[in-house]
Structures are given as structure tokens and as C-alpha cells.
Amino acid sequence: MAPYAYTLLRSQLFVSIPVPTESFTGQTVIVTGSNTGLGLEAARHLLNLDAAKVILAVRTVSKGETAAQDLITSCYVPSTRVEVWQLDMSSRDSVKAFAKRASGLQRLDAAILNAGVLSSKWSTIDGVEHHVAVNVIGTVLLELLLLPTLRRSAQRTASKGRIAIIGSDLMYTADPTILGTDGKILDKLNTRDAIPIGAYYALSKLLVFYAHRYIASSLSPLSPEQSSVVLTLATPGACTSEIFRDEMPLAQKVFMSVMLKLMARTTEVGGRTLVHAVSPSMGTEEHGKFLMDCEVATDGYGVESEIGQKMEKHWNEELFAHLESIAPGCTKL
Fold first, then answer.
1. Which of 42, 51, 87, 212 could cross-link with 57 by S-S, CB 3.0 to 4.6 Å?
2. pLDDT in the model for residue 249
3. Catalytic pick among 160, 172, 200, 205
4. How high is the mean pLDDT of the chain?
5. In 3-state terms, what secondary structure has residue 82?
6. What angle do CA 10, 13, 17 make, to 5 degrees?
7. Catalytic residue among 160, 172, 200, 201
8. In a domain, 333, yes or no
9. Is 205 one of the catalytic residues?
């Protein structure tokens, strides 16, 4: 924890996040979780960088439409440059329907998979613990289902597509030994009280990075023969964000409020990191990597340690078999 505390303090207090300047002229970009917070600010940056179309993927369409009007007004762009599509990351059917709709786009250059949950309460979705269901299974499923569309678009435009999952540097604090079991990791994750509820968010960010690394290295390596889509996973750092909107114990709420006031980046600054992760210049150096402060960062103990590598292999075997059962053929890229 001590090394992470140093990393966190250095990042939050001494690193200046650059304003994105790379042009997105002519490009279409999807941003999930974009009716508020980091996703909304990322969409604003993209429009200011001349993106031809930004698709706001939101759970509640009415809230997305309000956000779209905000963007249209503040960025002085025509309404044709902002679209609102429904997407519920907790619903497998919604994820599949969204990806199918996206497959009809004439052009799709990048996707920022930003939607996620953080909660101090236990709940499940279709029998799956909800951090795992949304932050891992829903996110990885969407990544897999969008990849073919991004590949086709990259071929047509002779450019690189980009997908960025928005993770968290809290994955550095996740203890991979917690995942140890004689059975399935997913079964353990879905068993109430088998793992402390406070550990789930950081664990979910480690688990999604495990999957993202596997896709980048094995299912969709960056090469002219296989794929021209760069896959990154980025942390925005600690930001003022509605991800903390869930109810929590008073002491925890006071602590989070004080810490955020002392160290948190604004949503606008956090949004810069999301845009950086799908910048047109992303390439081999960033493919499959973890980005922090707009730079390639260390993968951390949960990935680099012997136990981390063991859990990564075990988890990916389970997860991708599970995803195949949800959407047959999705892992056959």
C-alpha cells in the first residue's frame, strides 16, 4: 500500500494532465457513460477537436438528450454531430443490441468504454456480483463485439481504430490471492461474504485488465495481418465524479469528501485522460498497456507477480468461456 500511496500522491498533486490537441477531424467516436461526469467532458473535448460524430451511449435516453443539448450549445456544433444511443451495461441483451446497431455505422474510429459502477452494497445481476457484471463482463463483451466494426472501419480509412477501457489505478491495491479457490473464481465472486464488499471495485479493475491484456495479445494483436485497432486501458485518477453517488456509511462518506476536495482532479481534467487513451497517435507502444497520467505505466503487483500471473490465466480461461456462452462466436476474432 505504501508504494501505491506515493504513486497516488505524486499523480494527483504533482502531475499536470495535458489538454488534448490531436485532431479527430472526420472521425466517429462512441463514449459510454457519457450523460455526466468524465464521459460527458470527454465528449466535449472530442467535439472541440473536430470529431464528426460523437455517440453518447447512456442508460437513460432522456438524460443523454439533456447532455447532448449541453454539448451542442457549449461546443457550438450542429445537432447532427451528437447522437444519443441507449446502452445498459448491466444487460447482456442491451450490450449485444448496441453492438449490432454500431455495426451499421459507415465509420467508427474509436470507443471509450467509460461506464462503470462503484458501490458499498452487495447486489447481483443475473446471479453475477454487480461490479463484476458491469465493470468486467459487460465491458469486455462490448469490447469484443465492437472490435469487428472498428477493424472494418480502420481498413476502409487506412487508419488505426482505438478502444479504451477506463480502469482505475486502484487495481494496484487489489490482492490477487483473494481470488484463490479450488473451484471457479466467478463462483467465489458471486458468493456473498466470500470476498469483502470493499474489495470488489479494485478487483473488478484488475480483472478487466487481465481480460484486456489477453484480447490485445492473443485475440486481437496489433498487426497489418490481423488488426489495426489499438487497445488501451487508462485511469483518469481520482476525479470529482458521480461514480461516488452510491450511498455509503457516514464516516466513509466524510473521508471520501475530504480526500476528493484535497486531491481530486476536475471532471474536465479527468476527461482529458479519456481522450488521450483514444488519440489517433496511439500505437504499438500503448497496445494492451495500462495508461496513467497519459503515459504507459507499470502493470503492478496484481499482474507482474507469480500469483497474479496464475490468477490472470485462471480468470481469462473462465471469463472467455463464459462470454462465449453469452454471445457465441464473440471470442473468435
1. 87
2. 60
3. 205
4. 94
5. strand
6. 90
7. 201
8. no
9. yes
